[in-house]
From TrEMBL, chain A:
Main location: membrane
Rieske domain residues: 97-195
Keywords of this entry: 2Fe-2S, Cell membrane, Disulfide bond, Electron transport, Iron, Iron-sulfur, Membrane, Metal-binding, Translocase, Transmembrane, Transmembrane helix, Transport
Enzyme class name: translocase
Biological classification of the source: Bacteria, Pseudomonadati, Pseudomonadota, Alphaproteobacteria, Sphingomonadales
Cofactor: how and how many bound: Binds 1 [2Fe-2S] cluster per subunit.
UniProt-listed InterPro entries: Rieske_2Fe-2S, Rieske_2Fe-2S_sf, Rieske_Fe-S_prot, Rieske_Fe-S_prot_C, Ubiq_cytC_Rdtase_Fe-S_su_TAT, Ubiquinol_cyt_c_Rdtase_Fe-S-su
Protein name per Swiss-Prot or TrEMBL: Ubiquinol-cytochrome c reductase iron-sulfur subunit
Domain of life: Bacteria
UniProt keyword Cell wall biogenesis/degradation, yes or no: no
UniProtKB/TrEMBL annotation, chain B:
Subunit architecture: The main subunits of complex b-c1 are: cytochrome b, cytochrome c1 and the Rieske protein.
Cofactor(s) recorded in Swiss-Prot or TrEMBL: heme b
Record protein name field: Cytochrome b
InterPro entries per record: Cyt_b/b6_C (IPR005798), Cyt_b/b6_C_sf (IPR036150), Cyt_b/b6_N (IPR005797), Cytb/b6-like_sf (IPR027387), Cytochrome_b (IPR030689), Cytochrome_b_C_euk/bac (IPR048260), Cytochrome_b_N_euk/bac (IPR048259), Di-haem_cyt_TM (IPR016174)
Source organism (scientific name): Sphingomonas morindae
Keywords tagged on the record: Electron transport, Heme, Iron, Membrane, Metal-binding, Respiratory chain, Transmembrane, Transmembrane helix, Transport
Highest rank taxon of the organism: Bacteria
Domain Cytochrome b/b6 N-terminal region profile: 15-227
Role of this protein: Component of the ubiquinol-cytochrome c reductase complex (complex III or cytochrome b-c1 complex), which is a respiratory chain that generates an electrochemical potential coupled to ATP synthesis.
Cofactor detail note: Binds 2 heme groups non-covalently.
Subcellular location: Membrane
Amino acid sequence: MATRDTVDDPNQRPPVIAGPHEDGVGPRRRDFLNIAAVSFAGVGAATVLIPLVNQMNPSADVLALASTEVDLAKVVPGQGIKVSWRKQPVFIRNLTPKEIAEADAVPLSSLRDPQTLAERTKPGHKNWLITLGVCTHLGCVPLGISEGENRGQYGGYFCPCHGSQYDTAARIRGGPAPRNLAVPDYAFKTPTTVQIG
Amino acid sequence: MSFPWAEHYRPHHPMMRWLDEKLPLPRLVYNAVGAGYPVPRNLNYFWNFGVLAGASLAIQIVTGIILAMHYAANGLVAFDSVEHIMRDVNSGWLIRYAHMNGASFFFIVVYIHIFRGLYYGSYKAPREMVWLLGVVIFLLMMATAFMGYVLPWGQMSFWGAQVITGFFSAIPLVGEPVRQWLLGGYAPDNDALNRFFSLHYLLPFVIAAVIMLHIWALHIPGSNNPTGVAVQGPADTVPFHPYYTAKDGFGLGVFLVLFSIMLFFAPNYLGHPDNYIPANPLATPAHIVPEWYFWPFYAILRAFTFDFLFVPAKLWGVVAMFSAIALLFFLPWIDRSPVRSANYRPAYRIAFWMLVADVAILAWIGKSPAEEPYVRIGQFAAAYYFAHFLIIVPLIARFETPKPLPNSITESVLHGEAAEAAPLGLAAE
């Protein structure tokens, strides 16, 4: 302990006792302790934040809805059905040979989001066009999956909200949407049943 | 604020200077919990509990807002939505258990905070307003905790709502209409659940606002200290930061360790298993018991088992229970002794510990079934509670000879801090 002068006036603060490094050369022990304590608290606070942020992510019951099986036996060519997957509409369309030919005839260079129909379907199931029924513009549900709905000028889907046009491979051909209708992960379990997700 | 020798806020960075001119928020913080607030140099760890109570409220608000994101306030699905939180929501079990046990820890900390005030005379002039606002906070906490307990819509939730709202039916003439108005029906149901959820979300923010007033009112006379002797000069105080930020930070660490032990190893220890049974309006649980922090008041409520003076027992019980809390409002004027700290009040110190023991006995009675010998013990303990405030404390204030007080805080520290400032005077003599 360094000695210090006695303080005459009790209302006067005692002078600061100079430590070995008070001359500003080198760190003091207290600097190390301060940094260590604040770092420790910082790591703790960051760790606490993880569950507080993670709780906003999809919960287990939402993730449990992440796959659905669909029976396609009753869907004839030219027909389409709408199923729900992850609380979103999925369009499943049985394309006619004419629609397949139309889609294959389009040169890729003319497309906004170039993809062939073969890339957007499964091998051996080229007639099954399975896409999300969510317009890539702002997320409306396009028309054209049900009988009698407007399929737009390319015979695929038509989103009336802002006029996006999709062709028979559900590729964007006109209007504001940037990308083709998304193709979800799916697999054929049997020739007539498909598991989405 | 408080003392003329408080450090002044001097922003160095040009941007902080600009901010200080437009909105002196950093200045406010500096003067409230920074170097700008001089605090007596001799505080012991009982002065940690105000900060701990604030931290508890912060934990409750953060976890509560998150729970409200996943909870559904509807009688049909409320219970299931809590189970959804426990099973499906990421870390939902952690957040709900933190909220459950956080409520208990909030009350533990606040009870210690209140008894600290009783021991060291923190309710006396010039701090009466601090104390009054504190009692308001305590009442709001009780209302909030009760309404929160109803939300999971288990058996204890439902019958708790039934019993607590039943208090209001004891009011003469208008009792039953008032109860029906509170519940929005003849028994707790969806309407009651919805309004409790709304108010349970609102009241913590009201508590936070009253806490600000509580701290504001405290910072005008400045903090009390274990000797109860007023601050007389700069030598008696140290700046809040870094001295008490460091001390409170350590205390907060200890608190969080204890909280974590409870949270991770015994999350349901303080709960009641009946609340994992969905609410059933047609079957009452064998023992309706409130959460532990209401046991003493529950015991006072049940102490009246007989009608007298033309007033029914039910009304006596309700009046007694509310009086037990309302009494605290008058304490600054009931205790006329000029000496604040019980360290220098031998008789009051005994009375204080008798009160602690009495409240502990009331808590034990409150959790016990309503049968002998508990009923009789509870009646004596409830009577003693009122006697303490209405008879014993005024008499002691009048006849007690206090020990000589130190001339100043500094002098008491220099003469041996152990004797003068030790917690509860344990090192005295």
